[in-house]
Amino acid sequence: MTQEWQQAGLTADQRADIVVKAMTEEEKFAWLSGPMAIPLGDEPLPEGAIGSAAYYPGISRLGIPAIQQSDASLGVTALGNVRPGDNATALASSLLLAATFNPEMAERTGALVGQEAFAKGFNVQLAGGANLVREPRGGRNFEYLSEDPLLTGIMAGYSVRGIQSQHVVSTVKHFAVNPQETGRVVVSSDLSEAAMRESDLLAFEIANEVGQPGAVMPGYNLVNGEWASENAFLLNEVLKGDWRYPGWVMSDWGATHSAAKAALAGLDVQSGANLDQQAWFAEPLRAAVARGDVPQSRIDDMVRRILRSLFVVGAIDHPAQRHGDIDYMAHRLLAQREAEQGIVLLKNSDAMLPLRRGAKQILVVGAHADHGVLAGGGSSAVTPVGSLRLPGVDFMGIQTDKVFQPSSPLWAIRAESGAENVDFVSGDNLDETLKQAKKADVVILFAEEWRSEALDAQGLALSDEQNTLITAVAAVNPQLVVVLETGGPVTLPWIEQVPAVIEAWYPGSGGGEAIAGVLFGRVNPSGRLPVSFPASEAQLPHPQQVDPESTTSLPGMPVKGGIIHIDYQVEGSDVGYRWFARTGQTPLFPFGFGLSYTTFTRADLQATAEQEGVQVSFTLTNSGARAGAEVAQIYISPTDGRFVPRLAAFQRVELQPGECRQVVLTLEPRVIACWDEQQQAWVIDAGRYDIVLGQHASDVSLSVQIDIAARRFGYCRAE
Ligand code: GLC
Description:
Elements: H1 12-22, H2 25-29, E1 54-56, E2 67-71, H3 94-99, H4 103-120, E3 124-126, H5 149-164, E4 169-175, E5 187-190, H6 193-198, H7 200-211, E6 215-218, E7 222-223, E8 226-227, H8 232-242, E9 248-249, H9 260-265, H10 283-291, H11 296-313, H12 328-342, E10 344-348, E11 361-365, E12 373-374, E13 388-395, E14 398-405, H13 409-417, E15 421-425, H14 430-439, E16 442-449, H15 464-476, E17 480-486, E18 500-503, H16 511-519, E19 559-560, E20 563-567, H17 577-583, E21 600-610, E22 613-622, E23 628-638, E24 646-655, E25 660-666, H18 669-672, E26 674-676, E27 681-684, E28 687-694, E29 703-708, E30 711-713
Parallel strand pairs: 2-3, 3-4, 4-6, 5-7, 5-20, 6-9, 11-15, 11-16, 16-17, 17-18
Antiparallel strand pairs: 1-2, 7-8, 10-18, 12-14, 13-14, 19-20, 21-22, 22-25, 23-24, 23-28, 26-27, 27-30, 28-29
The protein binds alpha-D-glucopyranose.
The site of alpha-D-glucopyranose (GLC) has 9 residues, from loops.
């Protein structure tokens, strides 16, 4: 039977309107609140649910499919082993993706996630982690991208674009200013509107513009004392008002706190209702409508937003399959290529790397490198068949494991090195390890730092055992390479004693092969740090971390009514490298830093300021002997010091030896501007600005000055 919404030539909005009019009140409310579709305790799986984060019933008489939602940005997960035997490709962490500074890679890997979700029957992917890495110890930094709003927004946006190209809706999350995990449900992120607009909100704004995500997910936290899921400033004023967002807002799982207040503030769906005090968007919301507290038009708007997003990505015209074909080997290779581009070479004294092939004896140590590579914990943990699962943490009533994904660096090193012997030791027995290390031509030592949803790293240090091991091995064999598998920046107390260090992040299903490729030179590393590496916690705006048990106020963290208020106005929009610039501190490694096996020169930097914006042009040359990729970074700041240098444009450029390329970039005007709270607009002050073409945030070797005219721009607001 042909449905009315199937008429040719209708827009997604028109089709959504038709379906909303045809739906019963029961059918509407069935979409506004639903349980987690993972059995907790002896709860059965909802009838029709595949088994995943969420399920909402289809409307077969109208030809509308069920809504099946899965996590997350790094691949299709099976939390709580809800789909035993389910395989999936694990992408590298989002930090690694951002380290590629390559939007095209974000789109390609996003499409991989979307295709696997579609083939498994999912039409919504809870992806698009776009919180700024404001807290370097944050438990979910591996799911976020960067400390910079431009890099974060662009990379998240292209990833979302890739997912949605496969007829799967993507979210962006967790809106907004949700940088820490410990105490995430009792923490209020407090900062001014201007600081928020110029940092965390700008990242989401750009991600929304680039990716057009079908849904947005607010975080568990409060923002300036209001829960994000019922924060009218965030949801109605900024997202749906200023940004004209047409999709739907779904709460995080167990993060809804009211019926009428949340509905009127802009929340459209209560997710994971079985984790909340009550199914607010079921009976309580129906009662609020009956009382006239919430107009029926708001209920229709909620459902219309969902339908519109599903129509726009084609999820209704192309219903997701069940057990569709997935080319896992092709996907694994793409995951490897991503990892190859995002691994960062931090140190390479005397060009120790790449290692010579054909050694007699290589020793590989630690981090279960004989089995695989580390992944972050929680709802985003992808568990390919063959993963090593160790005890992790319990959250939301579900056991989440510490997972090593099956891409063994040891076997990849055996394949790539051509060495006669490549042995492995866990590193647990120090004496045995040192005995073997002394005999080796080279030692490749893997150091891991596991992070997970629901808890932050306690400090920035690797474990004492690992730091002790690294120091001891360096003392017996100077031919030592340390490979870091971390969920964010870490301190490196032994850095002076170790000649070569690479940051491999959580490198995903092709991570072992990517690491081996960099170590033995098949790959020229081109990753650049998307986050600063502090020299110590003392350098941070908030050296003291959140203590969820704390009922007493701490400096910058007053406790009121059980809520811990974190004063992020300390740094405001000067997150990460901007904080280091403002305070004149030198990090261990700056944002944007990364070494290469070749060399590059930068020249001919010019800048023009026209009505349509500021443009720069420059030339890059590969002055070395092998192909490589440079990441050009443009930083801008006013000469009067009104604000510190901000990343305003970037581009990854691949160059053959001797090749010279002219590059032209346009600077993001909202990075040049500041948000004026009185005028409620972006304002660029007239004056002289420094424009730097840097290899990283601390490099000011090539700059020009330019005069920029005053400019004011903002949002069309209904008067
Ligand atoms: C989790 C996460 C969110 C995830 C959701 C469903 O608690 O905060 O990112 O998408 O619940 O698993």
